[in-house]
Fold this protein.
Amino acid sequence: MNPMPQDKTSEQLRREWVEHPHFKYRGCAPDPDDPLRMAGDPSLHIGAHHGPDAFAPEGQRERRVREERAIEVCLGCPVMVACDRYASSVTPDGRLAEPEGVWGGRRSLERHKALIAARVAVTAAPDRVFQTVQKQAVLAALAQCWEPFEVAAVAGMDVRTANWQRSQLVRLLGLPKSVSRMRLLAVARERGLLAGVRVVPDDGTVPAVAPPTRLPPVEAPAAVVLPLRRPRRSHTAVMPGQLSFESLFPSSLGAAA
Ligand code: SF4
């Protein structure tokens, strides 16, 4: 099942799933006789769809067996379709509503692959927009390295242009701004944009869009001390024996100053 396009929000799809008249009969509900076991298969622990936590590592083989048994439970579940629609839906920030575990009869990896395939299929940008020299250079550079200055150097352009092209590639491939470099490269490869290019993997946390360049802090200019303004002197000539203007109206002089 294709997770896109989606006519309802993830939240609406979740409500449809939990408000389904058969929700309480779902396979992964707790067994009434033993809440730590699964109603759809009482020989399975209630957490079988999601696996052990980070403190209990799981081997590849155990994981595969556990997931297959969880999928068996899903296949007999009366709300499987609604569950899959919700779990495979896309949140406003471009992620899967349920990125981990078995949901609606599908593994996490299957849902992610379906999401990538759907994105590639609906991306409006035609192939030719990726065929510019700069985009191809940045993509090939990004496959080798990820530090902004290094990517720019390998791509043969300035950092600003390379960063701009990185964000353009993310936008044109229909990916969220927060997408990782590895995900961008996976989608680009699906799209046929990385044929014959070897990707140097990172640990999965490197962003595809370059982080903002940090400029050295600008020192505040020293405070300018303005000279005190002195009251203007009257240009009126005072004749001997004559009262001056200031002696007659001292308050007007102070207000003007
Ligand atoms: S489809 Fe699977 S994960 Fe979804 S409610 Fe049913 S048993 Fe649980």
Q: What stands out?
A: Residues 253-257 have pLDDT under 50 and may be disordered. Residues 10-122 form one domain. The pocket of iron/sulfur cluster is lined by residues 26-28, 40, 49, 73-74, 77, 79-80, 83, 103-105 (CB under 6 Å). The radius of gyration is 34 Å.
